TrEMBL record:
<dbReference type="GO" id="GO:0047753">
    <property type="term" value="F:choline-sulfatase activity"/>
</dbReference>
<keyword id="KW-0106">Calcium</keyword>
<dbReference type="InterPro" id="IPR050738">
    <property type="entry name" value="Sulfatase"/>
</dbReference>
<dbReference type="GO" id="GO:0004065">
    <property type="term" value="F:arylsulfatase activity"/>
</dbReference>
<dbReference type="InterPro" id="IPR000917">
    <property type="entry name" value="Sulfatase_N"/>
</dbReference>
<protein>
    <submittedName>
        <fullName>Choline-sulfatase</fullName>
        <ecNumber>3.1.6.6</ecNumber>
    </submittedName>
</protein>
<dbReference type="InterPro" id="IPR017850">
    <property type="entry name" value="Alkaline_phosphatase_core_sf"/>
</dbReference>
<dbReference type="GO" id="GO:0046872">
    <property type="term" value="F:metal ion binding"/>
</dbReference>
<comment type="similarity">
    <text>Belongs to the sulfatase family.</text>
</comment>
<feature type="domain" description="Sulfatase N-terminal">
    <location>
        <begin position="34"/>
        <end position="348"/>
    </location>
</feature>
<keyword id="KW-0378">Hydrolase</keyword>
<dbReference type="Pfam" id="PF00884">
    <property type="entry name" value="Sulfatase"/>
</dbReference>
<keyword id="KW-0479">Metal-binding</keyword>
<keyword id="KW-0732">Signal</keyword>
Length: 645
């Protein structure tokens, strides 16, 4: 349930869509082709619109859209060749082609991570049809080659904007500015707004955060404390965003921020729709709301999108506008089918060579969709087929199947793959899966001759005591500095010390801590990554799990023997800069621009060597963990080293 004291506030403060407002229609587009607005969020589960059945989330503007539009209830991301599922998803949306066409080419050319900017992409086709095209949104893991084909393209700063809570506001403000200052006011327009959230960092507004009580949030019925086997991505980047075991409290805390971030996006979408209403353009605009994929958020014991369960790969999709019926379109479609669908709905010729298929008839009348089955894929480790009410998941590296009847078991809890009465169905679905692979250019064998066991034991680490004195923060609230326990929950009672060790003789190369303030007295760590390496140019080993190539990690130049004197940063509503203070007094920032609000600095007070002395070998970090309501909190932090003899 929602925080009931805020229900009235929601309806008044967050509902911006104006229905029958009587505002002057001063900028109505001349009759002809409709405008097109694509609202594309990042990492948003299909079950995160209140009007579609989620009583725990607040989305008044998406609710209004759903009430007048068509809910495409089985919209899927086809798959990904990387952990950043968002990149191939966005490339497929804008190219209308499967990612196998450029990541697994059959002509001997080098595999690419981006679809080529050829003549029949979505922006190129709509440019040629007389539309003024506009793009704004996230920069990392996107279809950057195709973005260049929009007449207007803008990016968020992946650091400053995304950590500022203002990313959604900026995207919408700039979109409204575009509508006001268009180069071709008499032509129709197409806008593709690629929001960067609710992907972490989950920068929800304070108003949205206050609307939720974590204890009243209903959990999905398929949450588990861990995944029962190794699906090929049980310890990937996204899986380190929550501790093991994934307790109900851990997941409610996660959903609290996740839902609040979606509510924040909803408010900005409402502002844009209200602006269209005031211009008299709302009824002339085809509006598509969807996301690049879903997100685990504890379902099946998984946090990320690197899985082919419904929670990971199904996206929300609502379409409203001229000619679109109200109701539900239940047949499965791909996100890449949106491109030819928009062409058909706007009267633009559908280009040749697309893998996407138009589902416009589903939107204009109650007819069947263009596909009898869809293939889902993740790297070389997972394949799935959805055909009718049945879904078969195949794990080729461990020769394992899962079979679900989605009509009876939409949460995918009852695996029927070992039921002898279903053996012929499994064989039928496997055969159809291979057909779809062939059609879409997927060459992955579905059987391994030397499969791995698939066993998965969630990380659990005994925390070793440290004999070194700890660091202490210089601002109040240090006991509330919460660490996302990347290697397992601390064992023991309050005050248990811990030590993170590097490999013997290995120099410290980098550290990154992602922090976000969740209340005036609490700063939660989103990530805590330590990298060890002798040379910054060599491949780096992640000591505490994380992506060693992430752009926001600072690197210390070992060639210049910089000595760590402390960890510094600046705290505002969001801590958006964190880095090192080195021995020459200069800072090595981690990301973004620091806020001037509430600066803090964590220093090692009596660092036991002088400038010019031989540098000790750093071994890791030490400190004290405080147990609070089942959550591991960092009370203090220090540097562990071997003194020079």
């Amino acid at each position: 349930m929602l925080n009931s004291t805020h229900r009235t506030i929601v309806s008044l403060a967050f509902l911006f869509v104006i229905v029958g407002s009587g505002l002057a229609a001063e900028e109505r587009k001349p009759s002809g082709k409709p405008n097109v607005l694509i609202l594309f969020t990042d990492d948003q589960r299909a079950d995160t619109i209140a009007a579609l059945g989620n009583d725990s989330i607040i989305t008044p503007n998406l609710d209004k859209l759903a009430e007048r539009g068509c809910h495409v209830s089985s919209a899927y991301c086809l798959g990904a060749n990387m952990g950043a599922v968002c990149r191939p998803s966005r490339n497929m949306l804008l190219s209308g082609r499967t990612y196998f066409r450029w990541s697994n080419p059959t002509d001997g050319s080098r595999p690419e991570n981006n679809a080529p900017a050829i003549a029949n992409t979505l922006p190129a086709v709509f440019n040629a049809a007389g539309y003024e095209t506009y793009h704004h949104g996230k920069q990392g893991n996107t279809a950057q080659l195709i973005h260049k084909q929009f007449a207007h393209t803008h990016y968020l700063d992946d650091f400053a904007d995304r950590w500022s809570m203002e990313a959604g506001r900026k995207v919408v403000d700039d979109a409204i500015s575009f509508l006001t200052t268009r180069n071709k006011p008499e032509s129709p327009w197409l806008m593709y707004l690629a929001f960067a959230t609710p992907h972490d960092p989950r920068a929800a507004s304070p108003e949205a955060l206050a609307m939720y009580d974590a204890q009243e949030i209903s959990l999905p019925e398929n949450v588990k404390d861990s995944h029962p086997f190794d699906n090929g991505s049980v310890i990937g980047r996204d899986e380190w965003t929550a501790v093991w075991p994934r307790t109900n409290q851990v997941l409610r805390d996660q959903l609290h921020d996740y839902y609040a971030t979606i509510t924040t996006i909803d408010s900005h979408i409402g502002r844009l729709l209200a602006d269209l209403e005031s211009r008299g353009q709302l009824d002339d605009t085809l509006i598509v709301f969807t996301s690049d994929h879903g997100l685990g958020m504890g379902s099946h014991g998984l946090m990320g999108k690197q899985n082919v369960y419904e929670d990971g790969y199904k996206a929300p999709m609502v379409i409203a506008g001229p000619g679109v019926r109200h109701g539900v379109a239940p047949d499965p479609v791909y996100l890449m089918d949106m491109f030819p669908t928009l062409c058909e709905l706007t009267g633009v010729d559908v280009p040749e060579g697309l893998d996407g298929r138009s589902f416009a008839p589903m939107l204009t009348s109650d007819t069947k969709g263009p596909r009898d089955a869809v293939l889902l894929s993740y790297t070389q480790t997972q394949r799935a087929i959805r055909m009718g009410n049945w879904k078969l998941i195949r794990y080729p590296k461990i020769n394992r199947n899962q079979l679900f009847n989605l009509a009876d078991d939409p949460a995918e809890l009852n695996d029927l793959s070992d039921d002898p009465t279903q053996s012929s169905r499994v064989a039928e679905l496997m055969a159809r899966m291979r057909q779809l692979q062939s059609e879409q250019g997927d060459t992955l064998p579905l059987i391994s001759e030397s499969p791995s066991s698939g066993e998965f034991i969630p990380p659990q680490v005994e925390i070793a005591a440290s004999e070194l004195p700890p660091l202490h923060a210089s601002q109040p609230g240090e006991r509330d500095l919460q660490m996302t326990d990347m290697v397992g929950r601390a064992k023991g009672s309050e005050g248990k010390p811990f030590t993170v060790l590097l490999k013997d003789g290995e120099k410290l190369s980098a550290i990154a801590v992602g922090l976000t303030r969740t209340s005036p007295a609490s700063v939660s760590a989103l990530r805590f990554d330590v990298i060890g390496s002798d040379n910054r140019d060599e491949s780096r080993r992640t000591v505490i799990a994380g992506d060693p190539n992430a752009r926001w990690m600072p690197l210390l130049d070992q060639m210049h023997r910089q000595q760590i004197a402390g960890i510094h940063g600046a705290a505002g509503t969001i801590v958006n800069q964190l880095g090192f203070t080195v021995d020459n007094g200069k800072s090595v920032p981690a990301w973004g621009n620091a806020s001037d609000e509430s600066p803090f600095q964590v220093m090692y007070g009596d660092f036991p060597y002088r400038k010019g002395d031989p540098q000790p070998t750093f071994k890791g970090f030490c400190g004290t963990i405080v147990e609070s309501s089942g959550t591991s909190l960092i009370e203090s932090l220090g540097i562990l080293y071997l003194p020079v003899e």
